[in-house]
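hiii so my PI (J.) wants the whole complex modelled not just the main chain, which honestly fair. so below is everything: three entries, each one labled with what it is. i double checked the lines twice but i was tired so who knows lol
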Amino acid sequence: MIVGGPSRAGAVTDKRPWTFYALGTLFAAYMAFLYGPMLVIYLLSFQGENGGVTFPMVGTSLTWFSDIVKPGQMANIPVSFSRSIGLASLVSVLTVVFSVAAGLGFRRRFPGSGIVFYLAVASLVMPSLLVGFGIGLGFQFLGWETSLFTSALGAQLTWTLPFGLFAMFAVVNRFNRSWEEAAADLGASAFQRLRHVTLPILLPGILGVAMGAFTLSYDEYARTTLTIGQHNTLPLEIYALISSATSPTLFAIGTLTTGGSFVAIGVTLVLVVRMQRRRTAASLKVG
Amino acid sequence: MSSTTSLGQLEVPVNRKRLAIPHFRFPTWAVSWLQVGPLMLILSVLFALPTILFLVVSFFDYDRIGIYPAFILDNYHDLLTTPSTWRVYLSSLKFAVIVWGITLFLGFNIAYFLVFHIRSNMLRTVLFLACAIPFWTSGIIRAIAWIPFLGRNGAFNQILMALGVTSRPLEFLLFSDFAVIVTYVHLFTLLMIGPIANSLAKIDRSLIEAALDAGASRWATMTNVIVPLSKTGIALGSLLVFTQVMGDYFVVKTMSGGQSASIVSMLSTEITAMQYPPASANAMVLVVFVAIMVACMMRVVDVRKELVK
Amino acid sequence: MDNRFDVELIAVSKRYGTALAVDDISLRIPAASYCCLLGPSGCGKTTTLRMIAGHEAISSGDILIRGQNVSDLPPITRGTAMMFQSYALFPHLSCLDNVAFSLKMRGVGKAERHAKAREFLGLVQMTDFAQRLPAQLSGGQQQRVALARALIMRPKVLLLDEPLSALDPFLRIKVREELKRLQRELGITFIHVTHSQDEAMAMADIMVVMQDGHIRQAGSPREVFERPVSPFIARFIGSHNVLNGPDGTIAVRADRCRLGTPGDGPFVTGRVTAVEYQGAMVRVAMATDPGSEAAALVPDHEFYAKPVAPGDPATLIWAARDAHIMPDY
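here's the output for the full assembly
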């Protein structure tokens, strides 16, 4: 660990080297860069009734927040929001099941594993709109209607499954085979091993994948847009809003969704951290 | 107790009983395929097949009314001989390279800072999360956040003028190449930080101490030990950033104010016009490009070995 | 059925591709004995243990446990229990649940299995830690829980994979005594893999020395120490000098050698290379004139009566009857 480093004279000290301050400053600048625009959004969502989408602020109000739930707008936020949630939940569940299974399968070398791996990589890096286009085209050729829970679901899975798979690689690598062998030694059948040992131990990682898949789906835009059919999810509604209307309602939505993300991620994190801490505590060992 | 045993001169007892029931063991490769099956199925049907569909349709004929199955190279010909195609590709490439350079610099330094300079695990996790949390807000919202920030009346200009740096608002900040690049960096730096931090964390610290022991300066250690060992992270991050920029649709459209186009927005125009064959040809070209990128990255580092270990 | 032996290995081999990790070994371990598998890294001792446990498939040969052929059976039906080198305690379960795990797999009710688990935690003096998670225990404590977890299955044979290597030297000696005592009380066979010859000699009723996938010698510790069959064994066991005698290669115990003047008995001349103070004894290492190495373990008062220093010429002497001849080498 580069805690201190050699000083000019060459001896190792515990004092911070100058690079610490330089990089620290860079990091602080990056944080400002990252959060600056976000703060603008949060501020502007409280824009006064007569204000526009840019500064200056004309007083403060909550009208834009209430605008979100007012029906009859160019966009229908609450409905598309619930669609987003529904789709994201389903995507999350499917991603977890399939990528956990696949992650376990990759623990041994099996013939054809290379193909699966590279297919996942390709699916990950392929520009999202292309994937959406391909699926939309396919559906059209087959004469099927694109819709939320068929084509859109499928399109989003091509994005979340590779992520889930690679996340599972990291999780499974930390899994000690001895636990499964010990379970076998103690009389657990294959199913019992999975249920009582493998899955519980992998649970924090699995939760992480679930949360990740959920947010990926929830924010997904490009793959969904050509495969969604008639009814929009939230990101698509937002995009429609951008093109058509220009009011701070948009920012209000942004603030709300960010807040929602914070809460959701925060809860998951607390759960995962608590689980990990109990299991891997480097607590004071005596005797 | 007579405890000695023989060393291979043991007579095999005649009455040992072998298990009567032959023991069937499910072959391990079959188990793996069963586990990988659903994922493979979904990716094949929803990704591989559509890609093949592109390929096929790209050779189709079309006119104002519809599309006709055929095998003609006209679409590719049109695509590759139109100057605007090359212009758009070059423009995207230009953005990609610039953004790649900036995110690499930022990403590496920040990852290095987090992994090597932060001592407390708790703080490192918190700071890493601080980098990652914005990622969870929709990309669209984050992109448009720059508009009020960089606009003529935007926050940035106001700050600059308040500090007395300029007397008039800077015009070039918004709806320009600058705005596009800034937005890309804002959105994609995390894609560099993540994989690089992962690679850096795996480096055995005693290697660094051994280098110092052998008389290497901190800079020499960096170039001879740390950077080579973080090749995988750099390659992965680069791949992600490059493909995201090349495949972008939204940012260029919004932030350049119509001055630049992106490859994908070109595509979407054709799709809206129902001109599937040329759109497919366009898509295929992009696919080939991405495939070349991936192949290049694979040459640099064996991602499979690194990830699956 | 032969009741004299708890474990029998008959021409057992383990092949990984073209490499032979274990090469046609045969062994009979008497009932209720403490058996140590000893050897350098890569000799095949752990592989052998895992084949007995059923965690590694046998390439050829048979393994019998109390007369029953278990070669094709899964671990649970063999009557063996294993204590893993890393202990492999389930991190998400309390000590109590860890110990009760095998009973839960068999469908035993919660109250009953918890009671039984507490009983076995008591056996290893860990009852106070029943509700703790493994991460909150020290290495020695984890090991005891792992032991309880294995013993609750009432195995016929307990298999231990380098159980003492992760412990500090003082704890090691204490645990050594406990394991030995436990084995006596339970009256079952323990098979213990180790790379430390001191450990094996202290604990084993039967010591099995392995090298390159073969069993080189198997016998009581006394037998192996006093009559090693090959130079490899003599050197591995330690405290032996391997020298050339008139009838072939011989092994002489270092503590039966002295530094002195050539008399009627055998001797070899050379130069002192090192002097190591070991408390009760002093080890004097020398390079012999014929070109090999030797050492004498001299009681401290004898050494300090006539001390030597590195560089001094010296003669190693011993009694002819103390030389053990290894005719085939």
